[in-house]
Every structure is written in structure tokens, then in C-alpha cells.
Amino acid sequence: MPLPSIKIQFLNGQIGTVADSQDGLLALVCGATAVASTFVLSKAYLIYRLAGLEDLGVTAENNAALYRHVRDFYGEAEEGTPLVVFGVENTQKMSALCDKDSGPLKALLQNRRGELRGLVIARDPGEESVTATEGMDPDVIDALPKAQALAEWATTELYAPIFVALEGRSYEDADALPDLNEMSYDRVCVVIGDTSSGSRGAAMGVFAGRVAASPVQRNIGRVADGPLAPVEMFVGGDRVEDATDDITTMYDKGYITPRTYVGRSGYFWTDDRMATDEVDDYSHLSLRRVIDKACRITYDTLLDYMLDEIRVNTDGTMQDAVLKNWQASAENAIRSNMTARGELSADTSAGESGCSVYIDPSQNVLATSTVLVTLKVRPFGYARNVEVQLGFQVETNT
């Protein structure tokens, strides 16, 4: 018989603390060379700092491109930021990598169990040169529909929506580039511009680092976040400062490039355009990331109701209390994981959630076994153009 005592059990899960999110978890896919048994191609490695890559035996000497991209990543994102590194054969084209039926990236997404939010794809600029058509490597254009299809597959099959950033390789001529506004790849973006003159690649590590360091609603070109880390950036063979007209042309066509601002030192991304029509709801990466996060939260929340019993009225419709419980669960999940983090446009002091959930009370759930839920979130607006009327303040006596 035990001694008389008092037992206290600590309850958990009472505060409602939200777990750290992986909104910035990206995979850097890059042409590389295997390093003995420590760094194997087509295998994912999770690192948290440049030293983690070096621990795998990867150096600037044996893998110049991959090492540079990871170094640049941690120039933008703090050490401790997770990054998945995935080396591939230098001969593999981006269009082949993104093929959801035969490429290796489908397996990467499956093996990471839906945790990745984006794929940032680069190739080794040291490979033999290619003949540019339409202003850059034709492989970029070929990869666009493949990347879109892969991202859509991840969304519908894994319930893990992603975006894909493609390296705008072998850039030559802004005027000859295809207009991405005429396409419909709202999960894909193309980055042009690098940290060395005449580079056939792009600053994908710099891009990925700024994305990983930014909350989902943040435009990567936000001036208040400060300049990018590189002290020099180029578009083709020209310094960014000397390529203003070409940068304007590329921006009009939907590409992401570095730029400068008068009165500010350093470089900034022009914007976060996706390869789709500007009127598309998801024409910008910030909007894409916001809606994708809402998608993940909604899926996870409503999954608890899958195959659950639903109390219905005599006409087969959901009872009011059940309906309201579903709506409240979805809205509260968005409120806790997005609104409270400042990722939605909502006046929290007024009790707004920045989210609305509607379930039609007239739908016959008994007959259809289907519950149609409409969930909408309110994004932020962005100051892409600021117009000021400036003049003298003068009082005249009449």
C-alpha cells in the first residue's frame, strides 16, 4: 500500500500556443557533384547553416554553384533557418527535373511528406553554354508548364501546395523574352539577375533566403526590410544600375529581377510576380503564399471531421449547432495561425479575423454526403505605385 500523497498532473494544450510554422521551408535544387558517401545526388539533406553543407563535404572547390547559393541563402536568412538541399546531375535540365511523371522532384515532395513550401531550382553555371532563344535558355520556357503541373499535383494529391522558382538561365535580351503575363502559371516565377557579370545563372540563393526570412504576406521587394546582401548585382553583363531600361522591360513582362532606388544604397527585388496574367488572384508570390497557408490550415482542421457523424434535420440538412461548430473551427484555426501572426488584413482590436467561413444551411448532406464549405481570407494591399501632389502652402489675402 503506497504512502498517502497528493498527485498533480500537469495539463498541456491549455494555453493555445501556436507551434512554430514552416512557412519558409524551401528546397534548393541545384546541379552538383557527389562528394564520396557524405553528399549523394538526388538525396535531400536538411541543413540550418552554411557549416551544415560543409559538414557534408561540399566546398566552394568541389561544388561552386551549390556552395554559393547556400552561402547567399544564409546571407539573407538567419543561421538556424532550415533549408533542404537537393543536388542533381549537372546534365539534368529544369524541364526534366520538374516533370511530375519522370523527374526526381515528385519523389522529393513525397519523401518530405508535404512540409516543403517551395522549390527553388538552379543549375550549375559551369556547364557548357547553350544557345539562347527568346532571350534566354529555352529550357526555362519548357520548364514552366512542367513546374506548374508538379505544383498542382502537390496541391491536389498531397494537400501540400507549393510554388516553384526557376532560374532565368543564359539571359541575353530583355526585348526578346516571352511575356509571362500571357501565361497561366500562377505557381511558378522566373528570376533573372546574378551577383557576377555575365553569369549564365541567377541569384537563386539570395532569392530563396529573402523568401525564407519573410512572413507569407510579405512582398520580397519590400524596401523597409532593407537591401539584399550582395554588394554588386548584374543583369547579364551589365550592372543593375546601368540596366534600368531592361529591368523595366522585364518587370512589365512578369520577371523578378534586382533593382535600385534613388536615395537608397544596395539592391532590392523589383516585385514578386508569378508567370501569369496580372489580373489573376495569385499573380504575386505573397498572395500565393497567403492562400496556400490558408489551404493547409483548412485541410488540417476539416480533416478531423472526415467520416464523422453529422446530425441532420428531417430534410437532410445540417443541424444549426453542427453547422456553426464547423464554421467556428475553421475560422478559429485561421485566426490562431494567420490573423494572430499579422498575416491577414484584419482589425484585431475590433475582433476581426480577416476570414469568413460559410456553409449553406440548405444543402442536403444526408442525400449527398458532401458538405460544401466556402472559406475566404482577406489579403493585404501593396503600395506598388505612390502618387504625390506636391506644391507650396501659401495663404493669400484677397
Structure description:
The protein is α/β, with parallel strands linked by helices and 398 residues long. The chain folds into 2 domains: 26-290; 305-398, no CATH class. It is built from 10 helices and 14 strands. Helix 2 runs parallel beside helix 6 and helix 8 packs across helix 9 (320-337).
* Rg for CA atoms: 24 Å
Question: How many structural domains?
Answer: 2
Mean pLDDT rating: 93
Class per helix and strand makeup: alpha/beta
Give structural attributes.
two-stranded antiparallel ribbon, 2 domains, 13% strand, alpha/beta, 398 residues
Topology, element by element:
Layout lengths: L25 E6 L12 E4 L2 H6 L8 H13 L6 E6 L5 H4 L7 H7 L6 E5 L15 H20 L5 E5 L16 E2 L2 E4 L12 H10 L20 E2 L2 E2 L4 H9 L5 E2 L8 E2 L5 E2 L8 H19 L16 H18 L17 E5 L5 H4 L4 E5 L21
Parallel strand pairs: 1-3, 1-4, 4-5, 5-7
Antiparallel strand pairs: 2-3, 6-12, 8-9, 10-11, 13-14
Helix pairs in contact: 2-6, 8-9
Quick gist of this model?
It contains ten helices and 14 strands. By secondary structure, the chain is of the alpha/beta class. Helix 8 (285-303) crosses helix 9.
